[in-house]
Design goal:
Keywords: Exonuclease, Hydrolase, Nuclease. This is Exonuclease domain-containing protein. By secondary structure, this protein is α/β, with parallel strands linked by helices. It folds into 3 domains: about 200 residues, Nucleotidyltransferase, domain 5 (2-Layer Sandwich); about 110 residues, no CATH class; about 70 residues, 3-Layer(aba) Sandwich (Rossmann fold). The chain contains 18 helices and 9 strands.
Amino acid sequence: MASGPAGYAVIDVETTGLRPSWHDRIIEIGVVHTDLDGRVTGEWSTLVNPERDLGPQRIHGISAADVRHAPTFKEIAGTMTALLRGRVPVAHNLAFDTAFLEAEFSRVGVASPSLAVIGVCTMTEAGRFLPHAPRNLAGCCAVADIPLDGHHDALIDARAAASLLRHYLGLARPESPWPEALRSAANADWPVSPGGDAPWVRRGASAERERHFLARILDRVPQRAQPVQAGPYLALLDQVLLDRHISAAEADALVELATGLGLCRADLDRLHRDYLVALAQGALADGVVTDAERHELDLIAVLLHLPATATGEALAEAATRTPVPLARFALEQGDLVVFTGEMAEGRETWERRARQAGYVPHPNVTKKVGLLVAADPDSLSGKARKARAYGIPIITPDAFARMLI
C-alpha cells in the first residue's frame, strides 16, 4: 500500500518557446517543496542546456553563455523524478509547465504520470479563491498581497506560486481542497529514471564561473625548440574581435589554440600589444585619430586585459614604427551571410539590408558561408555549431550593422 502524500512540489519552467510540439525545450526549472499546510520545506533550481537556440531571450533573460555549462534534462532526470515522486505537482498554468516536463521525460525514455491530471493549478484555482483577480501570476500575487520580484525566473515564480498555494490552503482550512489530488499523487507510478543526478546550475552562476580567457593560460611554458607561431592566433583573434566582443565560446577557442601553439601568458600579452599597435597604425593612416577610433582602441584594450595606458602607448609606438600589414577579415560582394536567433528586428529586415550591401542571405551554414549573424554570439543553434566547426566568424546584429555603414 502506498504511503500518504509527502506534500506539494510547486514547479515553474522557463522555455525556448510556447509548445513542446514545436521542438521547444526547457531552459530553467524551479521546484519548491511544501508540506500539506503549504509551509516551504525545500527549494531547488537549475538552468538546463536545451542543446538548441534559446528563443526569445528578451523574455526569460537567459543567454547561451548561461546554459553552456548547465546540465541537459537527461542529466537531471533522476533528481527531478525524486523531487516529484509522492508529491502533488503544482504550477501557475499547470498545463503549460507539465506539458514541457512530460515531453522532456519522454525524450529521455521516462514514462511519467500525467502531471496535469494529478496536479493543482494555482491559476485555475484563482477562480475559486481569488474570484476578482486577474489570472496571471503577477495579478494573483497582487490581490493576495504576495511579493513577486524577478518575474520569469523559474525559482522566483515557483516561490510565488507556492505562496499562492499556502494562501489557498489557509482559506480552505480546516478541509483539504484537493483530496483526490493528494490520493493520486501518493499512488502515482514513477519509473526509475536513467541516471541523471548531475549538479544543478543556478541562474547567474556563469558570471561567477567565467574568468577572462588569459587567466586560463599558463604563466610560462617549458623551453621551446621552435619559435612562437603567432600567425594562426592573431588571425583567430582578429576574427573574434569583429564584433568587439569575446563570447564564451570564442574565449574557449582562443585558449585552445594558444595552448596548442604552446603560447604562454607573456606571449599573449606581447601579441595583444602588437595587435593594438597595428590597429593604432590603421587609425593614424590619415593623420588624425578620431574620438570614435580612440574609443574603439580603448575597447579592444579592455577586451584583451591590457592596462589603461595601453592605447596611448600603442598610438605613440604606432607613430614611430614602420607600418606592418595586418591581415583583416572582410566580407566581399556576393559573400553568403546566414542569420540565426530571434533578433529585435525581424530576420527579413536584416536579410534586406544584407542584399542592399551586396551580400547574399543564405538559409543554412555551409563551408561556403562567409559570416553568421547571431542574436546571441554563444548561440547553441545548429547553425552556430556548424559555423564554429567550419571556422566561420559569428557576430552580433549590431556588429553587422556597423559593417554595413
